[in-house]
Amino acid sequence: MRQSGRGRVPTPASPPAPADPQRAASVRAIAEQLAGIRGPLLPILHEVVAAHGYVHDDDVVVVADVLNLSRADVHGAVTFYHDFRRTPPPAHRVALCRGEACQARGAETVHAVAADRWSGSADVEVGEVFCLGLCAVGPAGTVDGTLHAGLTPQRLDAATSGWSP
Ligand code: FES
To answer: Mind telling me which Pfam families this protein's record contains (predicted)?
Structure first.
């Protein structure tokens, strides 16, 4: 039987060079700082999002390298949880509760108004959450991270005044 490569074990390919070395260094520092804790992957990804706004594909490579995981393992965690954005965040974000209690209090109307107002906007993202613990005073949501209860289209207007449509 003939073996190719004269019996040498191929060395794994080195990771591709990151597009932004400064960001890669920052992500590596975050990963190395948290690598020793129990279950470090999710805390590292949260810190990357806090520091850089989202998880870039290059960040996946760096985190996988530091934790000695496959890129598929890290990519799987990033894509499984909605908290880990994969694109730069917009300037503003509205997240409206679509939970049943809020639906019963008119959340669908507020969501429809918001989705219509900012559809196609690069500056505003309309998202959804499922229960913010404000069920009795819904519809609830967040506007740039600030909790709002009793949302109506008019209250949403007031909370987002100055935003371009
Ligand atoms: S269902 Fe909307 S806050 Fe609970």
So the answer is: 2Fe-2S_thioredx
